[in-house]
Amino acid sequence: MNECLFCKIAAGAIPAKTVYENDVVLAFHDINPQSKAHVLLIPKKHAQGLNDLNALDDGTLSALLRAAKEVARLLGIQDSGYRLVSNCGEDGRQSVQHLHFHILGGERLSDRMV
Length: 114
Ligand code: 5GP
Ligand code: ZN
Hints:
Elements: H1 5-10, E1 18-21, E2 25-29, E3 37-43, H2 58-75, E4 82-85, E5 101-105
Antiparallel strand pairs: 1-2, 2-3, 3-5, 4-5
Zinc ion (ZN) binds at residues 4, 6-7, 46, 98.
C-alpha cells in the first residue's frame, strides 16, 4: 500500500471514527477537532487535492458534495449550519496530500475565514 495517510484510513489499515461511508467516499472525525463538530470527508481513491481533480471521475466529485450534506445531517448540524473547507497547497496550509473536505460546525464559527 502507498504511504498516504488517508489512503491507509480509507483501506482500514489505520483506524478512524467513521461517520459516513459509501462506495466512493469516507467521512470520519478529525483527530484534532477545531470545532465541536469536525469531520473529514475524503474520496476513497487517491487525489492529491483540489489541483488534482482529474484523478477522480465526476460521479465521485458529486458524491463528495452530496456526502457533505449527509454528514451534516448525521451530525445534527444541517439546520444550525456548518462550513465546508478544503485547504490546498502551501499557502492554503494543506498538511495531508490526499483531497479532503473539513466539515465544521456544532457551534457558532468565526465570522472570518482566516
Ligand atoms: P489539512 O491541514 O491538510 O487541511 O487537514 C488535515 C487534517 O487531518 C487535520 O485537521 C488533522 O487534524 C487531521 N489528521 C491528521 N492525521 C490524522 C489521523 O491520523 N486521523 C484523523 N482522523 N485525522 C487526522
Ligand atoms: Zn491518498
